[in-house]
Write a structure and sequence with these properties.
The protein is an all-alpha fold. Helices cover about 75% and strands about 0% of the residues.
């Protein structure tokens, strides 16, 4: 952990004031709606009133509850409060989750990538925040839970790197209960043979099925789980995204690309991760016995898989917050290493990733940029840049290690 004198108090104060200003402005403008949170809240109230939960919109026309019955139980305490009070508390939870995520990611980057405390931590974190600010604003405005899931993944990764595998499974299991597409994060656990984490995760998923049965009864629980499965299957029928790999192919290559190509892309990502793992650990026994390299590759692999999720499945744009870990790593990297050509590329990618707002570009230009899938393209570009710079860091580490060994000889 960072020394007390190095703790980025400036960033914490800046971010806290930013989030405080956001909730004040939202209320002044009478836009403190948190539509996504209202879906969780209303669905939890419906559950407590024993009325329909799935298949009906709460709030907006697209406000269908599509998460598991277990998640409903987690949101049930909110249902005991008036909506306004619940929204304020949820907004505070999201704000704290943002700040905690940035601090944790900075610590992980320093410890496992850069191997030292970064200078100017307040500046690094503030720039990272600005890079994802548009998506932060949308997350706070809608009141979704994406940043909470990012925090759970980062906490799980921290425990995994500290060889505390049981809490890893619990934390990652919770993310999968919320959003099953987080199962892509099973790949690092499987390839790195984290068996205890996999067992813990499996038990967490089983518990998420059994607990609603204990609370609601077998028949009610079974009915809700059936409706949940149907809601997930229907999810893509009322949502679309121009930022998925399938949509980008249809936009720039062939409009007739079949729906099944989406599954091919998921398999391709899994294959690429396997290739990444082999390059790092499969070539020799020596590569498999370097814990520093394994920790770093485990991190960047997890970060990359998390970040690519919105390119694989149909989601709202605030889900591109999953790029946050890669963003913090890259900002910290460029503060330590001066590569101005790649820095310019990074800035251009961040502009495409994080500057599409109707307030900044105007409605017409913003819609054109959105429909062209620029966010999805730049998201992929930033992931690729992060992986490339990870390999450069590892090459530098090996060169330094070899030089030191020669000096000793």
């Amino acid at each position: 952990m960072a020394r007390k004198s190095d703790f980025p108090y400036g960033f914490v104060v800046f971010a806290s004031l930013l989030f405080l200003a956001a909730i004040i402005i939202e209320n002044i403008n009478k836009r403190f709606w948190l539509y996504d949170f209202q879906v969780y809240y209303s669905a939890a109230k419906a559950l407590m009133a024993d009325t329909q939960v799935y298949g009906i919109p709460f709030g907006l026309d697209s406000g269908y509850y599509k998460y598991s019955p277990f998640v409903l139980l987690l949101f049930a305490p909110y249902g005991l409060l008036p909506l306004k009070a619940a929204c304020v508390i949820h907004f505070a939870v999201l704000s704290v989750s943002f700040i905690a995520s940035f601090l944790l990611l900075k610590n992980l980057t320093d410890r496992y990538f850069l191997r030292e405390e970064s200078r100017r931590p307040n500046t690094i974190l503030t720039i990272s925040l600005i890079g994802v600010l548009v998506h932060i604003a949308r997350e706070l405005h809608l009141g979704n839970v994406n940043i909470i899931l990012v925090l759970l993944v980062c906490l799980g990764l921290k425990y995994l790197l500290e060889s505390r595998e049981v809490p890893v499974g619990v934390l990652l299991g919770l993310t999968m209960v919320f959003k099953p597409y987080f199962m892509i994060l099973l790949l690092p656990l499987v390839f790195h043979r984290k068996l205890r984490a996999l067992v813990s995760l499996s038990l967490t998923l089983v518990a998420s099925l059994l607990i609603p049965t204990l609370v609601l009864g077998f028949d009610k629980s079974l009915s809700l789980h059936r409706e949940w499965l149907h809601s997930m299957l229907d999810h893509s029928l009322y949502l679309s995204s121009p930022h998925t790999l399938l949509s980008l192919v249809r936009t720039y290559i062939t409009p007739q690309a079949p729906d099944g190509l989406a599954y091919v892309f998921i398999a391709l990502v899994a294959l690429l991760y396997g290739l990444f793992f082999w390059v790092n650990h499969g070539r020799s026994q020596e590569a498999r016995n370097l814990p520093k390299e394994e920790n770093a590759s485990l991190m960047i692999g997890t970060f990359g898989l998390l970040a690519v999720i919105p390119n694989l499945v149909i989601t709202d744009t605030e889900h591109f917050l999953y790029l946050l870990p890669v963003m913090v790593f890259l900002v910290a990297y460029f503060f330590r290493y001066r590569n101005y050509g790649l820095l310019v590329l990074f800035i251009l990618l961040v502009l495409g990733y994080g500057c599409n707002s109707s307030d900044l570009l105007g409605k017409d230009l913003s819609n054109w940029v959105h429909n062209g899938g620029l966010l999805g393209i730049c998201n992929l570009g930033i992931i690729a840049l992060g992986v490339y710079l990870y390999f450069r860091l590892q090459r530098n580490e090996r060169s330094i290690t070899a030089a030191n060994a020669e000096l000793k000889i």
